[in-house]
Amino acid sequence: MAEMREYLQKTRTLIEALPYIREFSGKTVVIKYGGAAMVGEERMSSFAESIVLLQYVGIRPVVVHGGGPQIDRMLEKLSIPFQRKEGLRVTSPDAMEVVEMVLGGTVNKQIVALINLYGGKAVGLTGKDGELIRARKYFAPSPKGGDTDLLDLGLVGDVVEVRPGVLHAMERSGFVPVIAPIGLGAEGEAYNINGDTVAAEVAAALSAEKLILLTDVPGVIDARGELISTMTAAETAAAIQDGTISGGMIPKVACGLTALGKGVRKVHILDGRVPHSVLLEIFTDAGIGTEITAPEPEEERE
After folding, report:
1. What's the pLDDT tens digit per position in 78-113?
2. Structural domains of the chain sorted by starting position, each given as residue range(s) with its CATH number in brackets
């Protein structure tokens, strides 16, 4: 009897997923993969399986990944000094070589290999490939405030433009792009770019249906410590202003708002430590994280 109940539950889960599969089939979903979701073989395998399932049901996943801890470990292993300013990584020319080696090489190829191992078709690339990500030097705001106190972080960049031609070609050929957040400067120099920023800009350039940001927390938490399931863009901006959203969640949410402002329909902030969190958010009625929705077009509100 218990076995039959288990089978019935699996059936209900599949039926619950059906309308979402129908709705999102053929549409692009950009996923920022990093943090705790990349810790350990089990979590990485779970993520790869989720990407393959999305591909099999006709959804077009695009993965943008991070790798900060892996970069730090390699810098230490190679005895290359590195520093931080106000908690932000400074990327020297020597460190940038390691960034390219780790992000564009080791980490990127590990993710690609896992997706392919579980039956998907993935190809790794950086922003240099096909001039995918044009970048410029980024100066971070100083806690002191004012334009005169901007922080020079070395070869840290900001996105100028995403040229999605290579991504469109890969999607037409049935491949999952796996993107390392390295940009190309005007003089051919490489820049280390925040992965959330790259994911937001890639999602906008592809007119993605969804941008999914995997984090180390359940989502956006309210003043009572409870998960906020759904927010509008306006409610999210207000939550930043009143302090409900604070600390490290602010830049992540800000990237989501940027994507929404450029045409992405929904942003999801999920706990990457939960196995198959991407599938649970997309294919179940309740979801498990925080969904931020774009403003309605003016004509629909009138």
Report:
1. 999 888 887 788 999 999 999 999 999 999 999 999
2. 24-301 (3.40.1160.10)
Write out the two tokens for 71.
Answer: 């970069």
8, pLDDT greater than 80:
no
Q: Decide which of 40 and 164 is more confident.
A: 164
Confidence at residue 131, expressed as pLDDT on a 0 to 100 scale: 94
CA proximity to 219, closest of 230, 234, 211, 203: 230
| Assessment of whether the complete model's pTM goes beyond 0.90 | yes
DSSP the chain: -HHHHHHHHHHHHHHHHHHHHHHHTT-EEEEEE-GGGGSSHHHHHHHHHHHHHHHHTT-EEEEEE--HHHHHHHHHHTT----EETTEEPB-HHHHHHHHHIIIIIIHHHHHHHHHHTT--EEEEETTGGG-EEEEEEEEPPTT-SGGG-EEEEEEEEEEEE-THHHHHHHHTT-EEEEE-EEE-TTS-EEE--HHHHHHHHHHHTT-SEEEEEESSSS-B-TTSPBP-EEEHHHHHHHHHTTSS-TTHHHHHHHHHHHHHTT--EEEEEETTSTTHHHHHHHSSS-SSEEEEPPPPHHHH-
pLDDT the model gives residue 24 = 93
How many whole angstroms separate alpha carbon 250 and alpha carbon 154? 23
